[in-house]
Amino acid sequence: MTQWWALLLFLTMYLAASQHHRKTLYPSAYRIKRGAYSLINPTFQHTVEDINLLFEILLAGMQIGGEEHAMLIPDEELASLRCVEKLEIICEDVLPKSLSEIRRLAAELTRHQRPLSWQDFERTVLTLVYTAQTIARLSNRHQREAWTDAAVQLFRAVEKDLKPT
Questions:
Q1: What pLDDT, on the 0 to 100 scale, is given for residue 37?
Q2: Which domain does 91 fall in, by range?
Q3: 63 has which bridge partners?
Q4: What's the maximum distance between 2 C-alpha atoms anywhere in the chain?
Q5: What span is annotated as the signal peptide, if there is one (predicted)?
Q6: Secondary structure (3-state) at 60
Q7: Where does residue 149 rank: exposed (0-12), middle (13-18), buried (19+ CB within 10 A)?
Q8: How would DSSP label each residue in 101-159?
Q9: 66: DSSP letter
Q10: pLDDT means per 10 residues in the chain (165 residues)?
């Protein structure tokens, strides 16, 4: 019986540590503004079909707006899919939007030693997409340089995570 308690304690500690670690990368994933419990720590990709759909949405020209703008998918058919609601919540409520938040994330990713969870990988790639789209809208050279530096750091984190260990 003692072995079961030790196993249960170990699993509880492991789950708590892994969730605490994810909170540091994307703390807003645990504070969804819309208030539904089912939306805590939302993720879009659960199957290969979801991955293909996200790729199709990105190729269709999805735009992730800033703090005051919504996500825009130009293809009306793709935009009307019910499953896109979670992607919208992730893009609007979870992803960091300010340069300081993105720099904090990039610094955390630089120190991150283990492979990213699939939720954090998804969010990092979407943050990289948002950062690249933001760079394209900027005209101030100094702002572009700061955002470009953040984008490069995010890219390096994704690249590091994709390399075999």
A1: 45
A2: 2-162
A3: 72
A4: 66
A5: 1-18
A6: coil
A7: middle
A8: HHHHHHHHHHH--SPPPHHHHHHHHHHHHHHHHHHHH---HHHHHHHHHHHHHHHHHHH
A9: -
A10: 52 52 61 54 84 92 77 92 88 91 93 88 94 94 96 94 82
Handedness of CA 108, 114, 117, 118 (dihedral sign): positive
Q: Is there a contact between 34 and 91 (Cβ–Cβ < 8 Å)?
A: no
pLDDT at 104: 94
The residue type found at 67 is E
How far is Cα 35 from Cα 32, in angstroms, rounded to an integer? 6
Domain count, the chain: 1
Residue 29, SS3 per DSSP: helix
pLDDT of residue 28: 66
Task: Indicate the residue type of 11.
Answer: L
